[in-house]
Design brief:
It contains two helices and 25 strands. With 394 residues, the chain is mainly β. The chain folds into two domains: 76 residues, no CATH class; 267 residues, Porin, CATH 2.40.160. The strands form three sheets. Strands 1-6-7-8-9-10-11-14-15-17-18-20-21-23-24-25 form a 16-stranded antiparallel β-barrel. A three-stranded mixed beta sheet has the order 13-12-16. The protein has a two-stranded antiparallel sheet with strand order 3-4. β20 and β21 form a beta hairpin. The longest helix is centred in the N-terminal third of the chain and has 10 residues.
Length: 394
């Protein structure tokens, strides 16, 4: 009743306008083998390696299929009055994918932010796209991964400031924290994912970008710094004051002409696990945590997405390639390291993903996709995904 009262009071003010939008998206998909993924594997990263049983059979080989509608979405945009010379706006959006695999089908918060927009700068505060997600160039693939792990995909609480020195140039700075997508480390001596590793560092993840826009062209560069305290003890001994920092970089672009849209990005990623991408670090530690040493491992990733609009039809193609890069020598420490991140056992990864969408131009569309992902393990394997989906947007 309290929320209804707030909404009623706001509606009484003519300076506020409210717009509801959303969609329903039933999605069927079938895989030729078991995959590394999330949300009932609807978010596919790459196929699992060959694992043989006592009879020599690969337990990860074989078709499996599923159908979900968890991406059904509802959002509200509130356009408000002028505040301090800026146009004010708020946005809130939820879906039913859950915050974790254990809470799938539960309502979860996607976006929730307020924005103040002046003539040549803007300020956004709240939950929004992870800064290494360049949402303007996001691949238009239909499954939940949206190009992941080649293109990062996540949202984080943040403060985002944009400055436009000229109409064509934008300088962007972001400070962001963690919630659903969390770092990996040792929590009470056990490898886990938790927000505590970022929280104990006291330093938000920092991102800086430079963007250039001219008509239908967008070009940009991004640099990202993440700082965590990878060993946290909430019981027993105090946490050792050791931090790990990781840098990631990106170049990206988009060009639209006639009925075509071409999008591309390359990443040098170090520990982008939180962004549903590749990379990570090795931790060498003694039993008492009195000595800790790290070794980073990186992925160089490039992807391309092409789409054309032909009346009711929209054919498209996504291509992605990632190469595991070992930089520097491993520390001279006895014992086996603890691995944190995604894709450490891969030498490379590539994907070919054609799609075809038919839209009624009245909110209803249908998409068919073929997605082949090939993972470079010691014994390389591939997965073929076939998917059909419908979207009714309103």
């Amino acid at each position: 009743m309290g929320l209804l009262g707030v909404f009623g009071a706001l509606r009484a003010q003519e300076s506020f306008t409210f717009k509801w939008h959303g969609f329903v998206n039933p999605h069927y998909y079938a895989d030729s083998r078991a995959v590394v993924g999330g949300r009932e594997d609807m978010m596919l990263f790459y196929p699992k390696p060959i694992v043989r049983d006592s009879l020599g059979r690969d337990i990860n080989d074989g078709w499996q299929a599923d159908m979900l509608a968890i991406t059904a979405r509802l959002n509200l945009t509130v356009n408000g009055p002028e505040i301090w010379g800026a146009q004010s706006r708020a946005f809130i959006e939820g879906d039913f994918t859950g915050a974790t695999n254990a809470t799938i089908n539960n309502l979860r918060l996607r976006h929730a932010y307020l924005a103040l927009e002046w003539d040549n700068h803007s300020l956004l505060m709240g939950q929004y796209w992870y800064a290494m997600v360049i949402h303007e160039i996001m691949p238009m693939t239909n499954p939940l991964n949206m190009g992941a792990p080649f293109h990062p995909y996540a949202r984080q609480p943040q403060v985002r400031y944009s400055f436009f020195p000229t109409p064509n140039w934008e300088l962007l700075a972001v400070a962001q924290w963690q919630l659903d997508n969390t770092s990996q480390g040792l929590l009470n001596g056990t490898p886990q994912s938790s927000t505590l590793f970022a929280r104990h560092s006291l330093i938000p993840e920092m991102n800086a970008q430079l963007r250039f826009r001219h008509r239908n062209l967008l070009l940009g560069a991004a640099a990202n710094l993440k700082t965590i305290q990878p060993i946290v003890n909430t019981v027993g001994a105090a946490s050792p004051a050791v931090q790990h920092q990781s840098f990631s970089y990106s170049l990206f672009g988009m060009y639209q002409f006639d009925h075509f849209a071409v999008k591309a990005q390359t990443l040098l990623g170090n520990s982008l696990y939180e962004g549903c991408s590749l990379g990570g670090y090795l931790m060498y530690t003694t039993p008492t945590d009195s000595f800790v040493e790290f070794s980073d491992w990186h992925f160089n990733t490039v992807w391309l997405d092409i789409e054309r609009t032909c009346g009711h039809w929209r054919p498209g193609l996504f291509l992605g390639y990632a190469k595991h890069i070992d930089e520097g020598s491993l520390p001279s420490v006895d014992g086996e390291p603890i691995v944190f991140g995604r894709g450490y056992d891969l030498a490379y990864l590539w994907r070919v993903q054609p799609r075809l969408t038919y839209t009624t131009l009245k909110g209803l569309s249908f998409t068919g996709e073929v997605e082949y992902t090939y993972a470079g393990y010691d014994q390389p394997v591939g997965n073929l995904r076939l998917s059909l989906s419908a979207v009714y947007a309103f």
